[in-house]
Amino acid sequence: MIMTLKLVGLAFEVNTSYQLRKKRDTGQKTDEEKLEDELNDVNPGFFDIFHYTFNYIGVLTGPYYRYRTFKDYFELPFTLESPWIEATIQKFMYIPMYAVLFLLSTSIWPFSYALTEEFDTERSWLYRFWYIWPTFFMFRMRIYIGIVLSEIVCTMAGFGAYPECTTPLPGMGPSNNFQQLKELTENPMKLARETLNFDTIRNINPYGSDFCTTFREAMKTIRNINPYGSDFCTTFREAMKHWNICIQYWLAVNIYKRFPSKKYRTFVTMLVSAAWHGMYIGYYICIGCAPLYLLIVSAAWHGMYIGYYICIGCAPLYLLIEDVWFKLILKDYKGQFLKLWEWIFWFFKMAAFSYLGIAFHLLSIRNVIHYYNSIYHAGALIGAILYLSGLYLLKAKTAKEKKKTAIKVDITSPVEEKKEL
């Protein structure tokens, strides 16, 4: 799956380099822009492509990185100056906690229990519906362990290290100060005094996805996930930005920004994500319904299982719901109950993730439908109620604001006329 991203991404990198060379001959650019084009110019041969594709760093679990990053690893002197020991220790220190929580939760709430006859007949509806929470918790712990370990492979090799002054972005690498980047590669003494980080290969932020707080910025180059951010941020849309960060860069650059229709680009991007995860319907339900959840508050990777499509395909639906309620409450709200509303949004965000995420576990259409039938599709019904009620309230709020504006205009108009007289 990672090789799919690499090869498709490389094709776009080569195409972008070609387009830049064409523009270079006709357009007027600054020295910084010319240097950026020069650093991003790629024209690999067969063996270059072979080595990039099968490089042991990230070959199985990622994170995704550009050919430019791969080339810089061998040609630029940043690897030897990188703080790889500090970065590795800082990433590894959380893994024992994730592992203990994962083993503890799986022993208390085994996922296989959700598919048993006892679960259907002897457990109450409330318990069956609540079971999505421990299931999603186990899923998060497992993902955090796997992706953080994949980042550690990069940091131990010194892969993806760049000077902080260039503002490295996950999946992309340096984003500015290319003149300074060139000077550092040519001046070892100056480079020794520079601070380097691994932001390019950071792929997840568990703390940030949950609590809207990120890890230390010095690890971003190979960052692939932000566990804290994905779990504790307020909205569903923001939490998605902390998951598979490098993969999201690939989707944004190669699918979202290149798709000609702005109206459908989000849907197509989600569809490609679901197809990349695999053909299980659970992926499409989980990811495809996410936009609907976003309305409330604002997958060719894993195989051919329907669960992927359900999980990924329904994500846009929640985004629709989230967006409605975000505009209704959080957008301009500054009252004393703001923090309370943020926690309410957080609860619904985690509930939506859990409800859609269980499709990732169930995978097959038979298991997915069986479970959702057992809870009477409560999540979908609640989502529909939230969306329709939010839409009604939002229209009423908009009409009320327009009425106030019209009254204000009527009051001020006579005063202005008198002044003119």
UniProtKB/TrEMBL annotation:
GO cellular component: membrane; mitochondria-associated endoplasmic reticulum membrane contact site
Record-linked InterPro entries: LPLAT_7/PORCN-like (IPR049941), MBOAT_fam (IPR004299)
Membrane-spanning segments: 92-111, 131-149, 267-294, 306-328, 340-363, 375-394
Pfam families found in the cross-reference section: MBOAT
Protein's membrane topology: Multi-pass membrane protein
Record keywords, A-Z: Acyltransferase, Membrane, Transferase, Transmembrane, Transmembrane helix
Pathway: Lipid metabolism; phospholipid metabolism; Phospholipid metabolism
Top-level taxonomic group: Eukaryota
GO biological process, one term: phosphatidylinositol biosynthetic process
Main location: membrane
Compartments, as annotated in UniProt: Membrane
Any one GO MF annotation of this record: lysophospholipid acyltransferase activity
Family: Belongs to the membrane-bound acyltransferase family.
PANTHER family xrefs: LYSOPHOSPHOLIPID ACYLTRANSFERASE 7, PORCUPINE
Stated name of the protein: Lysophospholipid acyltransferase 7
